[in-house]
What we know:
Number of domains: 2
Radius of gyration: 26 Å
Structural class: mainly alpha
Number of helices: 21
Order of helices and strands: HHHHHHHHHHHHHHHHHEHHEEHEHE
Mean pLDDT: 75
Number of strands: 5
Low-confidence stretches: 1-20, 22-71, 352-380
Helix content: 55-70%
Strand content: 5-15%
Shape: globular
Distance between the termini: 59 Å
Amino acid sequence: xxxxxxxxxxxxxxxxxxxxxxxxxxxxxxxxxxxxxxxxxxxxxxxxxxxxxxxxxxxxxxxxxxxxxxxxxxxxxxxxxxxxxxxxxxxxxxxxxxxxxxxxxxxxxxxxxxxxxxxxxxxxxxxxxxxxxxxxxxxxxxxxxxxxxxxxxxxxxxxxxxxxxxxxxxxxxxxxxxxxxxxxxxxxxxxxxxxxxxxxxxxxxxxxxxxxxxxxxxxxxxxxxxxxxxxxxxxxxxxxxxxxxxxxxxxxxxxxxxxxxxxxxxxxxxxxxxxxxxxxxxxxxxxxxxxxxxxxxxxxxxxxxxxxxxxxxxxxxxxxxxxxxxxxxxxxxxxxxxxxxxxxxxxxxxxxxxxxxxxxxxxxxxxxxxxxxxxxxxxxxxxxxxxxxxxxxxxxxxxxxxxxxxxxxxxxxxxxxxxxxxxxxxxxxxxxxxxxxxxxxxxxxxxxxxxxxxxxxxxxxxxxxxxxxxxxxxxxxxxxxxxxxxxxxxxxxxxxxxxxxxxxxxxxxxxxxxxxxxxxxxxxxxxxxxxxxxxxxxxxxxxxx
Length: 545
């Protein structure tokens, strides 16, 4: 179901009733170039980087006054763009004629050469097909993704990937589900790469993060959902926060409710109490700002859910609210019934009106259902992390996982780690002489050598390009130098004829020891040592001072 709230903020939910999520789309102030666009399908790494680099150049041109006069947004063009954003609301509200107006606006934008209007209208069309459930959603999001690629808009590509990743979660096709996971992982990477771009509109970036958050939530990856909401808030300018903050705060409260329900089902009372507390704090924060009436009703329902989950008796209150009629609680009737059911279970009452809710939450004795649910939860986390935290080419950890791993080690009290920074010597010549496919195979083989050099407590990562890193847990410098020398020797002595006749590969290594809580400083010192190794002729290891 796709649903919209008032004129400034709207939410997009899954077509499946068991999963709700709000994705913000706002009507922007006149200075904003565009708002939320969302689509599907996998993006290519080369497009992402090219688009980002292109965007940097375009930003400079605009600041220098080099932008052609015809590309400046006129009043008519701005009005059309804002109307496209408003149509996103109307198609979700099923306003008669809204879908036809979207089609007309797409044609007008194409004819007038208004790319930002066209993207907004294509987004409205994708939402309209999702609401209508007419079988055209995939085609609609494909069109949006293609336009984002044509316009070199990496953030909009990420929006497309995030929205498209919703579609295959429960579709019954394992291959499509895996592809959707990969799309979401790539959307996350694009948004990270775009963080330094001034040109990226804060509405688009915030909305893309929210779309990604909702998709993570569908997969029960709530840690990552929380992270995306934090990123959404961080990119908003102070004057723009009011447009999206309501969406983020409501969704945060709702995700804590889902998380708490899963923990209750898994039988983890301590974590359950923590997340109920976090959920109540999120509800209180959300209640401090302006929200539509139905959202406030939802917050009241969530508050009762948290109370019921920790054993408070709220059955009478919940049933009283549920009996008030279709407004304003009709969308949250399930929450009210669940709150009543939880209270009944905690206080020894078994009323027929609540029995179905108890089954949903596995309120019966711990059984196979809970065990299966637990395995499913762990399996979903493991499956997605492959796409979110691993490098697609080599299968090693990516830069995101590198920083996460360092943070975890620091939080566990590890005082000293060794960083081995490894770079392929003269790798550009490999690509220039034999092509990028050969270069990719070299990276895969180097990655395999590094993987064979780490223990279970260590981490091998590809940081980007031909740069790799090993994090070794608490090794002294002598042992680390032996490990690094073994890597240099292993690459140099390996036969590369099966990759390309005449090919030889060497690597240089920089080594540094330091605290895992200061990863950037550790990387900087290891990079200095790596540079020294290369300037000394390469195929050797140098230790940072």
